[in-house]
Amino acid sequence: MTAWLAANLHSWSAVSIAPLPHLYSAAASASLASDVWIDTPGTTAIRTASPAEFGGTGVHWSPEALLVGAVADCFVLTFRAVAGPSKLRWQKVTCAVTGTLDRVEGGLEFIWLRARVNLTIADSADTLRARRLVEKADHACLIARSLKAPVELEVLIDAAPSLPANHLPVEAVPS
Fold first, then answer.
1. Rounded to whole angstroms, how far apart are CA atoms 169 and 25?
2. Higher confidence at residue 156 or residue 15?
3. If you average pLDDT over residues 55-82, what whole number do you get?
């Protein structure tokens, strides 16, 4: 565990974290002419294939898309974890990640990633606090922190139009 994460873990009181270290596993399999299937215990397998840039059809997840997707997913999950205890009233967060793959000495690797975060908050007076929480999530995102390539953060924070006091977000409406 990083020193920063260890020092700030207490502030994630809304998150239940099992004792560290954690061990994660995944397996990939394919036959000579098939797509690759990746699986991790307890989940549905995902079909993957080479991206169009490497001669694939581009219609399935690729390792490259999974990598940038993992950064985006981790950011959103981390933002929810750090924003929960802050009581920031937010409505939606999206994180779109692009990555640049290039030739370097010794082969190909991602040399740079950009994470574009769009956060919708309830009150424009909370914009500065919201930006600090986005930056905290960026700093704590364990997937991005584990990569060699730098991740540039772009942030757009919008205030939602005022809603009536009795309005519930769609996700909160009981079914």
1. 36
2. 156
3. 97
